[in-house]
Amino acid sequence: MHQPSPPSGPQPAGAPDPRDPLLDAVEEITARSWTATSGGGEVTAVVGGDQRLRTVDVLRPDLPAGLLGARIAEAVNAALRLAREETVRAMGELPRIGPELRRLAGGHGA
């Protein structure tokens, strides 16, 4: 994620933090994690708000390859769906975003 350059020169005592609170909020949202399971807990996937897979845990590696692959895909897709929905919801609640972006963040694209 883009990090703003720190201000040059010393900051006076009591000066406000130059970092944008909206950027902080977006970073906090994308740092969250969501978890989903499949096969009654045989596979667990964790996905971040940045839509990246963080971990996959397999409790039954002895499953046939096709079944194991299907369970992994099911858990990952469920975690991605949850992360996407919750991230979009949270972004839509942020202040200072325009009505068009708020509408798109609410899942009501053009």
Describe the structure in your own words.
- By secondary structure, the protein is an alpha+beta fold.
- It has a domain at 32-105: Nucleoid-associated protein YbaB-like domain (Ybab, Chain: A, 2-Layer Sandwich), CATH 3.30.1310.
- The protein has helices at 21-31, 65-92, 99-105; strands at residues 33-38, 43-48, 53-58.
- The protein has a three-stranded antiparallel β-sheet.
- A hairpin with a 4-residue loop joins β2 (43-48) and β3.
- α2 (65-92) runs antiparallel to α3.
- It is elongated.
- 9% of the residues are buried.
SSE diagram, text form:
Elements (H helix, E strand, L loop, with lengths): L20 H11 L1 E6 L4 E6 L4 E6 L6 H28 L6 H7 L5
Antiparallel strand pairs: 1-2, 2-3
Helix pairs in contact: 2-3
Write a concise keyword list for the protein shown above.
single chain; 110 residues; alpha+beta; Ybab, Chain: A; three-stranded antiparallel β-sheet; 3 strands; 16% strand; elongated; disordered N terminus; YbaB/EbfC family DNA-binding protein; YbaB-like_sf
